[in-house]
Amino acid sequence: MKGIINNPTTDPNKILPLTYPWARQHYKNGVANNWVPEEVPMQQDVELWKRQGIGALTPEERRMILYNLGFFSTAESLTANNLVLAIYRHVTNPECRQYLLRQAYEEAIHTDTFIYCGDTLGLNPDEIYNMYNQIPSIKEKDEFVVAMTQSVLDPNFSIRSPENIQRFVHDLIGFYVIMEGIFFYAGFAMMLALLRQNKMVGVGEQFQFILRDESVHLSFGSDLINAIVAENPGIWTPEFRQQITNDIRRGVDLEDAYAKDCLPRGILGLRADIIRQYLEYIADRRLERINLPKIYSMANPFPWMSEIIDLRKEKNFFETRVTEYQTGGNLKWD
User: Fold this and answer.
1) Contact indicator for 270, 279 with CB cutoff of 8 Å
2) Which one is catalytic: 27, 67, 116, 132?
3) 116 noted as active-site residue
4) How many angstroms separate the Cα of 120 from the Cα of each of 39, 41, 281?
5) What distance in Å separates the CA atoms of residue 28 and residue 86, rounded to the nearest whole number?
6) Which of 4, 23, 63, 161 could be disulfide-bonded to 95 (CB atoms 3.0-4.6 Å)?
7) Residue stretches of the annotated binding site for Fe cation
8) pLDDT, tens digit, for every residue of 64-76?
9) If DSSP codes are grouped into helix, strand and coil, which group holds residue 230?
10) Mean pLDDT lowest for which of 81-95, 120-134, 251-265?
11) What CA–CA distance (Å, rounded) separates 191 from 262?
12) Binding residue positions
């Protein structure tokens, strides 16, 4: 039986018979989530973004929105580059590649979402896209992920040796577990807290769609990592497990610093210290998902986020989509 990596890379994607049914299921879940940003109406957001005085967004709310748009707009392009340029090349199992093609499409949709939001709100693209250079906490997160995934982006990198298979798993953890599983989640909590206050509902609903996608990305990535380790158990040494745990701990610290930048004072029932608790809670879940012991033992301070993240509970949101979404891109400007 062929393994999940190191098969001939030019064979047709002969998906049947399935070797990894979980990969096929993730593909089906991705298809079921299909959406595009233009389906979401933004008229309310435009009106609120322009409003002055009573009922307007506070400066702290605007800061939080801009920081999250700035981080996500660059982070989504980083994930797409890793996926297309590196991961697909090395993960050669057909049903996994089929899912990776689906994920690449979703990353393009996410990138397009921030173009749509920026254009609709009339934001300065230079300000949004240069935040990774101007905001230290955003820059540190991006640089951390780039450093963790630099091996797979090397065109001469091969995963034939056990050492390089271990390095590949290390980079996959940086990509899926830390970038998509930790670095995105403080932003999700902030933007969805805003949505719960019925503010910037169009942007918030698009973050909700993205969260639905990312939960499948994270599940696929964890299953992929576990499958490679199961087929190459020699790479899962105590030293390597400790390195991964330390990387995840560092990821939590970097995301904590970002949350403090976004929330210098508490708003919307959010404070940076509560975000830290949430990050520790989800970090433990990420560790357990790849068969490592948890390190924080923190309770979930945002039980409402569990309802949004859990796919089986997200169904209600998608059942309530209305036909108005089909004309959401037709905005009226003053």
Assistant:
1) no
2) 116
3) yes
4) 13, 10, 35
5) 23
6) 23
7) 76, 107, 110, 180, 214, 217
8) 999 999 999 888 8
9) helix
10) 81-95
11) 11
12) 76, 107, 110, 180, 214, 217
